[in-house]
Amino acid sequence: MFEAFSYITLQHYWWIIVSLLGAILVFLMFVQGGQTLIYTIGKTNDERTILINLLGRKWEFTFTTLVTFGGAFFASFPLFYSTSFGGAYWVWIVILFAFIIQAVSYEYRSKAGNFLGKRTYETFLLINGILAPLLIGTAVATFFTGSQFSVNLMNITRLTGDKMPIISEWTGPAHGLEAALSLHNLTLGLAVLFLSRVLALLYFMNRIKHAEMMERVKKQLLINAIPFVVFFLTFVIWTLLSSGFAVNPDTKEVFMEPYKYLHNLIQMPVVAIMFVLGVALVLIGIIRPLTCFEKCSTKGIWGAGIGTVLTVLALFLLAGFNNTAYYPSTFDLQSSLTIQNSSSSQYTLTAMSYVSLLVPFVIAYIWVAWRSIDNKKIDMEELNDETHVY
Amino acid sequence: MENIDFSLVNWSRAQFALTAMYHWLFVPLTLGLSFIVAFMETLYVRTGNPEWKRITKFWMTIFGINFAIGVATGIILEFEFGTNWSNYSWFVGDIFGAPLAIEGIMAFFLESTFIAVMFFGWNKVSKKFHLLSTWLVAFGANLSALWILVANAWMQNPVGMKFNPDTARNEMVNFWEVLFSPVAINKFLHTISSGFVLASVFVVGVSAWYLLKNREHLFAKRSIIVAAVFGLLTSLFVVLTGDGSARNMAQFQPMKFAAMENLYVGQQNAPLVAIGILKENATEADHKKQDFRFMIEIPNMLSYMAFLDPNAYVPGIQDLVQGNATHNLLSYKERSEKGKIAILSLAEYKEAKKAQNDSLAKAALVRFEDNYKHFGYGYYEGRELHELVPSVPITFYSFRVMVGLGFHFMLLFFVVLVLTLKDKIAKNKWVLYTALWSIPLAYIASELGWVVAEVGRQPWVIQDILPTIAAVSQLQPASVQITFWMFFLIFTALLIAEIKIMTKQIKKGPGEDVPSTESASANN
Predict the structure, then answer these.
(1) Cystine design at A289: which of A19, A300, B285, B464 (Cβ 3.0–4.6 Å)?
(2) Burial classification of residue A104, based on how many CB atoms lie within 10 Å of its CB (0-12 exposed, 13-18 middle, 19 or more buried)
(3) What are the structural domain ranges in chain A?
(4) Looking at this predicted complex, what is its ipTM?
(5) How confident is the model at residue B520 (pLDDT cuts 50, 70, 90)?
(6) Across residues A325-332, what is the average pLDDT?
(7) Partner B contacted by A40 (CB < 8 A)
(8) CA–CA distance from B245 to each of B237, B264, B280, B306, B457 (Å)?
(9) A20 to chain B nearest CA, in Å?
(10) What are phi and psi of A173, to 5 degrees?
């Protein structure tokens, strides 16, 4: 069936899949957001234990989604993998480091003989909670603002001269960390960070049975929602009003087009609807629990969660579709990556497309498994009956 | 090529080796213990005997401690292909990326979803659903091993692809050839079964400790029986697949094979050195020639092992480097010249295409394709060719220690199984001590297997096509040094934490099966 698809259709299909994985990853980073709120919401040991166990049953999904996002990006757009990971080395290394220290922290935090002490593991969770959303958001912002690199596939034949035969060369001064010095990039990083905290609070509302904690959660929701909205709107308006990296569909030449992303939004009405709907759902998810806490507080995570996925998906599509370079180079415009010049071969995309048919099954069994173990709200009583506690 | 920054290449290699070896400290136990736990839980569900539940839960706790750190070390490996081997990521990403993505979609989600049910579902889901979850975790863990080993095997024996000169990379033309390559199948089976053996040694060793401390007799004996049966069966399988690995290696990676055997001059009826001590030959240091200080040989065995024919010719290091006309072997010098032709023809092809000179492009392409199988050697034109010979002592000794330990484990499983069935195990202190001290040996054997596979194939990232010097990312060596030490420190700290937590947990023992004890400790 996928054999009938044209190469360009497959490239679009895979950009949607990668974008969807990225969007789900941003939603699942509520785990990271939650990790930054453990001491804000949990005032006693018991309360913190509740929070950590609540997040501890979900962290692996965020982690696995990140790993799958990376694998899928590698398989479908290997030139991005090669250029961005090898070039923006430090920003990716710091992100990865933040995930290494997260992976053990839940399991080891409260175990006897854990060597580094409980507080260290809690600090690890805090570092991961701040750095992962902040830096992933910043890195995604470079899809719109560009980085400094050059790509020349023929460098592989460079046998003489003083340079090694390396195709992607980063010219940014700090191997990726320079991205975090741009205010434009940082606004998205900060928006994602506050969004992850907002989503965490909504998740807590959905899962915790504890009156005093709920009061704190409710208070924090407003405190975090305001900076989120401010940073997010700043990024969106800034991006829509900036020049974007357009591609001439005939010559494949990359050029700067004023209001490119605004044009993309207008020229792709489906994406525009998705974006508006997404933003609206996130806002409704936040506002409803504030206005009718009793009835609506458990549902906020669903509205805001689905809204997040739609919004991030729309942002990725704005960056990659409609003759746009999704990973632009400000050093050498013509080195910019597009979904056409950076993708895998038609054969590989076709083979991988069959594998992608498994995704609905994966989502279905995750749903069944979650339902079976998350069937009631959590409190200390429930944890005392539990045999595996973090 | 004179423009190589070896400090960058070597630090990048060191970083990859570090992360791979740390990761591999945790993976084999996950692969094997997941099945052992599933067997135990099956016995519980079948018999309804609460003792089996207690046994299952204890080993599941150990599994969880080990699993977390395996995940932590694993994420780096996936991304290091991009961060440190960026040329590689483009040059073969079209083939190599697919297994990584499939691993995520098919295996990792299976594993992480049902691990949650396995740990948190005891009081929430039915016995059968819980058992199914435990089996799915084992299945998912081993499925992820399949995909990453397919990817690794492909680097050792690249099949199912064709170089596309327009995109300057290798592209997949046959997915099934990649998946079902004999090297891939063999590597997968050998690696997972070695993980089963390691986990079995671990369970037998820990159980032996309880018997030595005169604790938990029933628990320990039952654990030993399950693990020893599993270990004995799978260690036979390790031997079988190991034999297959050697044959694949002789066929596809003759230099690795010659180095592993320290076969300097090739011969027919080649003998296998069962035990040997090497001595560096000072006169021919260039070719890394090693003499034997001492050795015990098995006549004809090497020829038989490599080609199932005692009379077969096995090429030595010298034949491969200097060429051997009788056996149709090109020298590395000739191969590097042909490789250089391939590389330069590719550049010419691109230039001609740009100038729209089709006849020139066509001629360049023909030259390129004729010489492509030597492509990687082209980067060594004008360099010292002994750079293409891997370390002989490391591969030679690693292989022998690994094989020797493999047979030791087999014997151990047999002895403890017989003694346990006769109910005499508790009295045989020296057997119990041997079992206990075999735990570190199992880790050593397992790591050495990878040392043979990976050090033995140096300098090839993709056999004959891409060497490390052309695969690396453009970074400051200092950056890689810093990240190397960052990873070293954090992994070491986490390893210490893991070992301390595990030994505490083992000393604490399986305990009573009342939930309050565990949650009470968790609240400390």
Answers:
(1) A300
(2) buried
(3) 2-385
(4) 0.94
(5) very low
(6) 97
(7) no
(8) 12, 21, 28, 10, 13
(9) 13
(10) -70, -30
What mean pLDDT value characterizes chain B? Answer: 93
CA distances from A207 to A63, A298, B30, B372, B515 (A): 21, 8, 31, 60, 22
Retrieve residue B336's tokens: 């590097």
Q: Is the peptide bond preceding residue B459 cis, with omega within 30 degrees of 0?
A: yes
Residues of A in contact with B78 (CB under 8 A): 67, 70-71, 74
- For residue B517, the model assigns a pLDDT of 37
Reported as a single tens digit per residue, the pLDDT across A141-164 is 999 999 999 999 999 999 988 888
Output the CA–CA distances (angstroms, integers) from residue B351 to A373, B55, B345, in the order listed: 62, 68, 10
In eight-state DSSP terms, residue B22 is H
CB B357: neighbour CB atoms within 10 A?
A: 13
Asked if B95 reaches chain A (Cβ–Cβ under 8 Å), the answer is yes
By the CB < 8 Å criterion, does B485 face chain A? no
Return the C-alpha torsion angle A209, A212, A218, A220, nearest 10: -120
B3 vs A160: CB contact, 8 Å cut-off? yes
Q: A372 and B68: CB-CB below 8 Å? A: no
pLDDT at B514 over 50: no
Residues in chain B, total = 524
From A18's Cα to the closest Cα of chain B, the distance in A is: 11
Cβ contacts from A onto B, under 8 A: 334
Interface test with A, best of B11, B54, B102, B105 (most A CBs within 10 A): B105
Eight-class DSSP state of B105: I
Q: Is A160 on the interface with B (CB under 8 A)?
A: yes
Averaged pLDDT, B95-100: 93
Distance from CA of A140 to the nearest CA of B (A): 17
Q: Indicate the SS3 state at residue B326.
A: coil
Give me the residues of B, 266-325, that contact A with CB < 8 A: none
**Residue-wise DSSP of B444-470:** HHHHHHHHHHHHTTTTEEETTTEEGGG
Residues A102 and A374: their CA atoms lie apart, in Å, by 22
Which chain B positions have a beta carbon within 8 Å of A168's beta carbon? 86-87, 90, 473-474
Q: Is B110 on the interface with A (CB under 8 A)?
A: yes
Q: Which two tokens stand for residue B449?
A: 């297997």
How do beta strands B290-298 and B272-280 pair? antiparallel
B124-163 burial, b if ≥16 CB within 10 A, otherwise e? bbeeebbbbbbbbbbbbbbbbbbbbbbbbbbbbbbbbbeb
Using the predicted structure, report yes or no on whether residue B284 has a pLDDT greater than 80: no
| Chain B stretch 139-178, residues whose beta carbon is closer than 8 A to a beta carbon of chain A | 164, 167-169, 171-173, 175
Write out the E strands in B98-187: 161-164, 169-172
Question: What is the Cα–Cα distance from B350 to B284, expressed in whole angstroms?
Answer: 42
pLDDT of residue B287: 62
3 state SS of B85: coil
Point out the residue among A82, A156, A158 whose CB comes nearest to the CB of B89: A82
Confidence class for position B286, pLDDT limits 50, 70, 90: low
Q: Which residue in chain B has the smallest CA separation from A172? A: B475
Quickly list DSSP for A35-66.
HTSHHHH--SHHHHHHHHHHHHTTHHHHHHHH
Nearest to B77 by CA among B147, B27, B20: B20
Number of helices and strands in chain B (H, E): 18, 8
- Using CA atoms, how far residue A7 sits from A11, A13, A20, A223, A349, in Å, is 6, 10, 20, 47, 8
**Which residue from A72, A82, A347 is facing B104, i.e. has the nearest CB?**
A72
What lies within 8 Å, CB to CB, of B495 at 6+ separation is B22, B25, B69
Mean pLDDT of A300-324: 97
Please indicate if any CB of chain A lies within 8 Å of the CB of B380: no
